[in-house]
Amino acid sequence: MTRLSPGASAPQHRPMSEPRAFPVAIIGGGPVGMMLAMNLDAFGVACVLINTDPTTRWHPKGGTQNARTMEHYRRLGLSGRLRKLGMPPDHPTDVAYFTRLNGWELARIAMPSEAEKMRAVAGASATDQVPEPILRANQMYVEAAVFAQLPERRHITLRYGWTCRDWRETDDGVELEIVEEASGRRETVRALYLVGCDGGHSIVRRKLGIAYGGGDPEKQSYMGGTMVATHLRSRGFYGAIPHKRGYQYWAVNPEIRSNVMVLNGKDEFIVMSQLASPDDKPDEREIARRIIACVGQEIDLEFLAHATWTAGYAHVADRYWQGRAFLAGDSVHLFTPSGGFGMNTGIDDGANLGWKLAAVVQGWGGPSLLATYEAERRPVAFRNTAASKALTRNIGAVPVDLAIEEDSSAGAIAREKTGRFLSTFAEEFASIGIQLGARYDGSPIVASDGTAPPPDDPAIYLPSATPGGRTPHLWLRDRSSLFDRLGPGFTLLRLPGPPPNTRPLERAAQQRRVPLALVTIDLPEGRDLYQRSLALVRPDQHVAWRGDALPEDCSALVARVTGW
Predict the structure, then answer these.
(1) How far apart are CA 430 and CA 387, in angstroms?
(2) What are the C-alpha distances in Å from 455 to residues 68, 69, 404, 438, 459?
C-alpha cells in the first residue's frame, strides 16, 4: 500500500501529449472532490482530479466526521483506518466551558471516547441506527489519509499541483485548460461532465454566473466576522488545566471568548480567535496574549500556522448545475462550522451526485437523472445551513455577567446562569437528526407509497423506510452490518414474510442494464423496521421504493428511479 507522509505529493501521471478524454473532470481535490472521485471509481467510471496544491493542506480545519459521512467512508472501505487518526482512543471527547481554563468550570457536555463508542457499537441491538458513530478527528488528518489512498484507485487520474485556468462547454462535453504550477506546463483535458468542488471562490460557479443567496455574515461577539485559526504546539497545556480532559475547551468571561480544540491528544491544538475587522491580520503577540488570557496563566506556545476565515455565513447557491457543469461542497453552500455541518453536507452531495453521473456515463441513467441532484440536495443545504446558523447565534448570545469570575455570591449566581445556558448546547455536538435525517421527499426518482415521513428534528433521528429517507440500519445475525451487504448499484431487500416473486424486477433491471443486488433479511426486527416485504435501495443508501408485492409494471418502476 502506498503511504504518504503529511505534505507529500501524490504520484503524478506523465503529462498527456494529446488531449485525453475522461467521463468526469473534478476541479478541487479537497474532501468533497476526493470522495466524489472515489464514488465514481467504485462504479468503474474514470475521472481526472485537478487541484492547485500538490497535496492536501496541512492545517487544522473541522474536527467532525459525522455519522453519515462515516457511513460513506465505510462504503468505500475507509472508515476503519480513519478511526485510528487524531486523539488516542481513550481520550474524552467532552466539550467543556470555563471562566478561564484554569478557573471555574461552567458546564460540560459529556461525550464518549472513541474506545467507548466502539464498545457501544459492538454491543448494539439489531436495530441500532449508528453503525458508524461520529468521529472526532481533524479534517487535515482525514484528508491526508484519504489522499494517500487515491493512487490505489485505478480509475482516478491525479493532477495535484495543477490549476484550471479556464474551461468551456463544447457540443459534446467540456474542455479544460490546466497548468502545472511548478513548471508552467499546459494541458488540455476533455470530459463529458465537469464538477466544481473548488470552494467558496469556485471558478466553475463564477464562470456559470451562479450566485450565492444568504446575505452578508452576521456580526456578533464571537463566531461572527473574521476569525483566525491558529495551529500551535504546547507541552504545558494539559498541566495548566485542573479539570478532566476534553475535546473542546471554551473560555467565557468579560475579557475573552475563545475556543481550543484538541488535535492529537498530546501537544497540538487549534485556537479560534476573532479579529476586530476584516482588514486585520493575525498578530502573534496579540494571539499569544489572548491564549494566555484564555488559559488563565502562562504556558509554552509554539505557533505552527495561522489561517483566516469568516464566520457567520449561511449561503446556498441559486443553482447546483448548468449544462454539463455541476457544483458540490463549499462551491454551493457555505457554513459557519457550528455543528460541523459544512464538509459533511458536501460529502453527502458527492454521494448523491456520484452515482447519478456514473449511471448516465454507463448508459443506465436516464435524461432527467442529473437534474434531480439539485432537486434533492439544495433543500438539504437550506435545512443544514439554517441549523448551523441557529447554533452560531446561540454562541453569540451566551450571557456573561461582569461578576462571573468573582469568588462571591454574585459570581456564583452569574456562573450558574451562564452554565445553565451553555448546558443547552449539547445538540451542537450531536445533532443526530441533521446527520442521518436528510430526506428526498417529492423527488421525481422516489416512488412515494403515500405514508408520511417522520418529523424532521435536528436532535432526533427516527428510522423510517418511507421512500426518500436513509435506509434504516440493521445488525444481521452474524453481526455484520446491512450496509456492508448493499451492492454498489441498487439493492432489493427481501424482508421476513411470504417470499414475493422478485424475478420481474430483476428482469426489468437487467433489460435496462441497471446494477441490482438482492439481499434477504431473516430478522423479524427487519420487518418491524421496514413495514413491508420489499424495499428498493439506491446506490446512496436512500430508499427509492417499498411494497409488499412488486408493482404490475416493474419496467416503469426501474425507469422512474433511474431518471427515464
Answers:
(1) 12
(2) 18, 22, 40, 11, 11
Provide the H-helix boundaries in 127-167: 139-149
The closest of 286, 287, 242, 221 to 260, measured between CA atoms, is 287
Q: What is the mean pLDDT of the chain?
A: 92
Query: For residue 179, what pLDDT is reported?
Result: 97
Q: What is the arithmetic mean of pLDDT over 476-490?
A: 96
Q: Are residues 417 and 490 in the same domain?
A: no
Query: DSSP H helical segments within 17-88, as ranges?
Result: 31-42, 67-75, 79-82
Residue 68 lies in a domain: no
How many Å apart are CA 451 and CA 377, to the nearest integer? 22
One domain, residues 287 and 168: no
Contact criterion met (CB below 8 Å) for 263 and 138: yes
pLDDT tens readout for residues 145-178: 999 999 999 999 999 999 999 999 999 999 999 9
> Residues 450, 540: one domain?
yes
Q: How far apart are CA 62 and CA 345, in angstroms?
A: 13
- pLDDT over 90 percentage in the chain: 80
Closest by CA position to 65, among listed 406, 336, 287, 342: 342
Question: For residue 401, which amino acid is it?
Answer: D
C-alpha cell belonging to residue 223: 463566531
Give me the domain span that covers residue 357.
20-59+139-215+314-386
Is there a domain that residue 72 lies in?
no
Per residue in 368-406, pLDDT (tens digit) is: 999 999 999 999 999 998 888 777 777 778 889 999 999
Residue 263 has pLDDT above 80, yes or no: yes
CATH of the domain at 346: 3.50.50.60
Contact indicator for 382, 388 with CB cutoff of 8 Å: no
